[in-house]
Amino acid sequence: MQIDVHNLNYSYGSKNILSNLSLSLSDGDYLVVQGKNGVGKSTFIKCLLGFNAVKSGSIFYDHQDINNFKGWTKFGYVSQKFEDFNYEFPITVKEFLSISSLRKTSEKTRLRVLDQLGILELINQNINNLSGGELQRTFIARSMLNDPQVLILDEPTASIDKLSVEYFYQAVNHLNERGVTIVLVTHNDSIDHLNYSHVLTLNSDMTYVFHKRERTEATL
Amino acid sequence: MFLSFFTDLFLEDIMLRALIAGIILGMLAPVIGSIVVIRRLSFIADTLGHFSLVGISISLFLSTMGISIFFEQPLYLGLLFSVVGGLLVELFRRSYKNYKEISMVIVISLGAALSAMFFSLSKKTGSLYNYLFGSIITITNFYVVLILITAVLVFALFLIFGKQILSVSFEESNAKLLGVNVNMFQILFMIVLSIVVSMLLESVGVLLISSMMIIPVATAMKVGWSYRSTTIIAIIFSELSVFFGLWMSYSFNIPSGAAIVSFNVFLLLIVSFIRKMRQKQQPKTKEIETN
Question: Rounded to two decimals, what is the model's pTM?
Answer without folding.
Answer: 0.84
